[in-house]
Sequence to fold (338 residues):
Amino acid sequence: MQDAAQAGEPSAAQIAAALDGKTKPQGSLGRLEALAAQIAALQGRLVPKMKRAALTIFAADHGIAAAGVSAFPQDVTGQMVANFLAGGAAANVIAQSMDVPVTVVDCGVRTEPDGRPGLVSLRLGAGTANSLHGPAMAAADAEAALDNGLRYGAAIDADAVCFGEMGIANTSSATLLAHKLTGIPVAVLAGRGTGLDDEALMRKTVILERAAARTGRLSPRAALAEVGGFEIGTMAGAMLGAARKRRIVIVDGFIAGAAALLARALEPRVDRALIWSHRSAERGHGALLDHVSARPLFDFDMRLGEGTGALLAWPTVRAAAAIFRMASFADAGVTERR
Ligand SMILES: Cc1cc2ncn([C@H]3O[C@H](COP(=O)(O)O)[C@@H](O)[C@H]3O)c2cc1C
Ligand SMILES: O=C(O)c1cccnc1
Fold:
């Protein structure tokens, strides 16, 4: 639902009229026009500013990794954090190709990364506990993750924020969180993650169904505490913080999608800031997107995370904002349709 425009800001009708007055057949830029309208409504101006994007990668470890739900060992989380800081990961090279700066936020990697430029510490511990046996984190840590994220997200100096994540076994935490928030069955949401084979996926599904059965219906905050992750909670808070400052939030894949579900559950108005970048190849992502009636911009069979999908959407978001700078029929002396 479109929010009512605030005093002095263009209404949805005024934004639509501005787009319709540009030198093109009405609606001919298709979904780019819908994106443009969303950006103008969020910023409350007819010529929105969309110059700078920034990527943040939220990283943390997950106790449920001990249940054998990932194809990779837990140490890879910390090793990849070092790789991000050295500039060697997929997210780094894609971001660099677009001049987008990268920040890594340590939300609770098992072994604390060495302080390096580009690293922000919002650590809540050395990873979560195994949610198969008990709560992943204390209620106070869930609250702290959201608060840390809120402050961090509000302080990012960019017109659009891309959020990615790193955390071995976090497709499991995202599956459980999305299940608790939406009621979509675990078996629909659980996927291959880093590359489980058929048998390992069956085992993962059984394990996650057991973990889900440990608790009943949960509030959003309780769901984060019971089955979530430090990086997922911090990212959800950052989505809220950035959206409150009227920044576009470009949502990445399955795990970021679960964080967005949490952010929406806490504050439905965040929706006006969210742009769902891509449909991940991770099994449950389609069901998650359908649940929020989101139609992502593209489907590249990607299933990496790190914010790689969000980054690829950035040039399209920037181009969408630019169409407000087109000449109108009147400005350019172009004859309008009969
Ligand atoms: C080398 C490597 C780089 C990654 N970059 C993102 N992920 C992705 O895979 C993980 C989730 O999958 P699962 O739940 O199966 O562990 C997350 O860290 C996610 O960001 C990676 C995974 C690996 C192995
Ligand atoms: O869609 C994602 O974000 C994803 C999928 C698999 C593994 N890591 C991330």
